[in-house]
Amino acid sequence: VNDVLPPGLSPLDSIEAVEAGLHQFGYIANRQISTAIYIAHHLQKPILVEGPAGVGKTELAKSVAAWMDLPLIRMQCYEGLDESKALYEWKYGKQLLYTQILKDKINSVIGQEDDLTAALEKLHGFGDVFFSHQFLEPRPLLKSLQEPRGAVLLIDEIDKSDQEFEAFLLEILSDYQVTIPEIGSVQAIVPPIVLLTSNSTRDLGDALKRRCLHLHIGFPDDKLEAKIIASRVPQIEARLLKQIVSFVQQLRAMDLKKVPSVSETIDWAKVLLLLHTAVLDVDLVRDTLNVLLKFEADIEAAGKQLAGMTHKAQAEAGLA
Amino acid sequence: VTTAASEPLRRFLQVARGAGLRVSAAEGIDAAKALDLVGYHDRAVLKDTLALLLAKTPEEKMLYDDAFELYFQRNEFAEPDDAENPGLDADANAGDGAANESGGGDGSAADGGGSGNAQGNGSGSGQSNASALAQMLMRDDRAALATAMEQAARDAGLENIRFFTQKNLYARRILERMGLRPLERDIEAMRREATPQGLGRAQFLEGKIEALRDSVRDFVERSLILYARGETEKFREELLKSARLSNLERRDLDRMRVLVRQMAKKMAARYAKPRRRRLRGHLDTRRTIRRNMPWGGIPFITVWKQKRIEKPRVMVLCDVSGSVAAMAQFLLMFMYAVNEALSDIRSFAFAGSLTEVSDILEKYPVEDATAQIMATIGYGSSNYGNSFADFADGWMKDVTNKTTVIILGDARGNRTDPRTEIIRELSDRCKRIIWLNPEHRSAWGTGDSDMFRYAPFCNLVTVCNTLRHLERVISDILQDAT
Predict the structure, then answer these.
(1) For A63-91, how does the pLDDT look when each residue is reduced to its tens digit (9 = 90+)?
(2) ipTM
(3) Smallest CA–CA separation between B350 and chain A, in Å?
(4) Helix then strand then coil, % of chain A, to nearest 5
(5) Cβ contacts of A216 on chain B, cutoff 8 Å
(6) Quick check: B298 and A96 in contact, CB under 8 A?
(7) Residues of A in contact with B58 (CB under 8 A)
(8) Is A43 within 8 Å of chain B by CB?
(9) Where are the beta strands (DSSP E) in B186-331?
């Protein structure tokens, strides 16, 4: 992979290089995340990323793909996802046409033979085109193996898929190959970097976990979150940024049904930027709280403490 | 992979397994490969790397953190001894200041004496060890002592320690392998000869040996925590699972709650998934034609008929009068934890009379909810007939032929009318009745127990007084639904 990377994008030769590389593309990775990418690349192992929704699991895959300049192939999992949607499908229409053509041509090809056995012999000689790569419609998994320069394969929300599908993934995860009964096994040209994400709605099987590196991304602390927002919303002013982060961190400490995620913090920062806010005040926070909190009960619970929390946020930013 | 580099890793894997992580051989190999890549020099990277490979659930990450901190902080004599040693040094100085002052000459003289004695004893293998140990102690060479102790511990197989009763055994083995016995014989000899110099030395060495014993004991203790904690925990949990719920001690309750939640989660994961099952061999013609429209109705893709699997509906009736209260608490906890696998669960609590408690359980954490329920209706003397009548009045109409009714109680109605006809009607209406009785079978039907009067109308009557029983019963209920 290294020698096809454009110059300037440093290859994966150290953990620091990974961290810096991801930073270039706006992803602020902590040490754990960059270590995971580094090791996954060198040991050629998939990474299973777990953590609450909205902490940047999917974003990580996108950033890795952008940084390494590889195509990102994304497969969203859901209940009922099966091989024909994940791996490959035959192009039935084309196969139909092919049989039509075959019917027309068959006479001219084997017409001269006068007995059936000889005709069959001749037919065997043509090889089996019907089930061949030409009629194969690659789906995400197969596509990721066929990319000539490798790819980043994102298997999103694997916990939403069925257990059988999980078992089906094992072959591709450990050997980077898939088996198509009519053709045989297809080996990856360049093993893709595989990231699986899970929100832990169900426990994944041990077999799957054993084959993966396990990375848990939690909510970032205030410093890291400030960095992330500064990188995603660069126009934001430093003092406002401090208040935003302080306020959101206080919200996360509350006992809420769903605490605000990093992506929601970013949205909120964008909203505040649009409203030309310099200093958080209680009314403004109340009006925009629905960006952060998505349950009526949560908004109500937080509403009672808004004044105190806003004040504290201001104090921490050196205002008030 | 060089063996020298992988030795610490190998032992850490053992530690990790001891702490309760499930580390497979393949994962061990991956860890070795990863360490070849990142090396040992950066502790933070080392920790992150191994965390990626060895700990694969949030619980495991926590266990891993503990194990890592414990294992990679062990610098035997460096820290713990520094704290306690000033005192020892002072002692030694006070005891034989003169001997310590003239360190060099004294040491060599004593060495001569030591080897002479050893020859006299004729103990071949112990000799070099004894004098080496004496030298280390005299010089107070902590690094060397630590290395010797590690080495001795490895020879003694300390990593196999499992129970706290083995502590003394292993401590003794380690000390012996470090050469303590010949040294003690030497000291004995010095005392017998009774030269002033020899006596001073003997006293000094004895003080040092005492300190050494302490640190070996410490070391063994820590190793026990390191290698056997998971084992001990597992052992305790096994015990708790089969302990009678009514006999639990207060301090075990928290652990018990965790266990209940774990069990329930496992069960929910096992039974929650399959809602539909394909019926192989039953072609769904209508949907097959629809699916193959793009190819002019030629059936390239076949669609099979599917069977919807109903989630069980459950009604739980819990006796919360004094004697069965502990049991009821766990049953309710369990049912709510497997909520995911059940579509509809309603719970009722009764003693003298009956009331629905689903809301309370839904709204509050189980611990608070049980307290609240107990406060409102608990602790009275139970009246089964009355309670069943309440149920019939209020909720009998909600019972359908898909409902499973679980009744938990000892069937002791204090000689009130059992109203068996209500249970008969209930059994006609519902899918089945399961009666869980915390009393032993031999106590059924004795005294005021009406168990045998209710039994004919129940599909299953069983003893249930441990967590394991509970798990089995609930598992059966869920199993039948699939």
Answers:
(1) 999 988 899 999 999 887 887 788 888 88
(2) 0.80
(3) 32
(4) 55, 10, 35
(5) 58, 61
(6) yes
(7) 216
(8) yes
(9) 276-283, 304-308, 313-319
